[in-house]
């Protein structure tokens, strides 16, 4: 047998016997445990047909405000949670490559030298002997023939784990994009609330000066003066509170962005951001939910658990391990590659068959099957949770415009009531208490209008997120 034949024969046998199928059950995607249509009723409105799936709308097209776009891009570059998710992908990819490498023989080159002195009592010649041995070769050690798909099942499981980490990264990115937008809008709303409180304080201070002057001339009572003072102090309290909130909002935005936010990218007021994003149509549940990365991640984990059953089943069958080596040897270093009789090779297959494992293999199979059932339940729960999130967002979307319109009308009416009560007080028809009540009602209505507008914009962001946009 030639040297080439001796080397190629074992490797050829290795590669030919590894192309087997696994013993994993055939994967079947579980049916979605949710209705085929979104909920309907008074809280919902008819959604237009989606020309483009929300998951296919880039965040650059959904968020049209330039400052917000720059902030999101900055967050995608610097946010630490997203960075960890990306590193987890690299780690999972390496683990998959480790598992995949088990499908192929590991060929190692080795060289060794042995130097030994034999005493004259053991040499057989009555003289001491010095023995020198040198050898160089290639070898395959402990390579498992994957006849029953155990190694391939473990490789498939590692692949699904890798794909799951990619979907996890997409989930983190979607959450990050929406979190930046919500924090941006919240900061804008609190800045507008602070501005409103400052304007109210200025107005109340003017009213207090006027009331104090009227009191000093005997036109207004001490009660009117103290009531005017309470309005001033209440506005000062709100200014201090909103100043704190604005600072905390800026800190939260810097944290999610992952770096200090440039002053030129901070929002002014919420009123300037009412058109910061586009509207979206939900589409159908079956088309939307199964494309969400968190659901795809749960399905990848389910597929991995299904593949692990194949590895557990293969453990009941024989495991064949091969050891092979080929090389040259000589008692003289100079003649290592010149002597025709120095060629050596070894081919040593080994088979092990589990006979008694005290139920360990059966228990491992049971664990794998239960893990698969758990993954099925988690996959179904992920779909149900996604359905609920979209349904909640649609319920708010169906009523938030009416709420904003009603609050705007209430604010306009309250403003007119305050103007009339102020005029009647100046003419001596109404008491200052009536003016104070009207002013407080107007201030509260204006603050609630800001809250309603913020809720509407945040609902658009939420709907974009729960429909899978931003990944």
Description:
- This protein is of the alpha+beta class and 471 residues long.
- The protein has eleven helices and four strands, in the order ααααβαβααααββαα.
- The protein has helices spanning 3-16, 59-62, 66-78, 80-101, 120-123, 150-216, 222-257, 285-288, 293-314, 360-426, 432-466; strands spanning 107-118, 129-145, 319-330, 343-352.
- Strands 1-2-3-4 form a four-stranded antiparallel beta sheet.
- Residues 1-19 have low confidence and may be disordered.
Give a short synopsis of this structure.
The protein has helices spanning 3-16, 59-62, 66-78, 80-101, 120-123, 150-216, 222-257, 285-288, 293-314, 360-426, 432-466, and strands at residues 107-118, 129-145, 319-330, 343-352.
Layout of helices and strands, plus pairs?
Blueprint: H1 3-16, H2 59-62, H3 66-78, H4 80-101, E1 107-118, H5 120-123, E2 129-145, H6 150-216, H7 222-257, H8 285-288, H9 293-314, E3 319-330, E4 343-352, H10 360-426, H11 432-466
Helix pairs in contact: 3-6, 4-6, 6-7, 6-9, 6-11, 7-11, 9-10, 10-11
- Average predicted local confidence, pLDDT: 84
Fraction of residues in H or I helices: 55-70%
Beta-strand portion reads 5-15%
Strand order within the widest sheet? 1-2-3-4
Radius of gyration: 38 Å
Poorly predicted ranges: 1-19
What kind of sheet is the major sheet?
4 strands, antiparallel
Assembly level: single chain
Query: Which term fits the overall shape?
Result: elongated
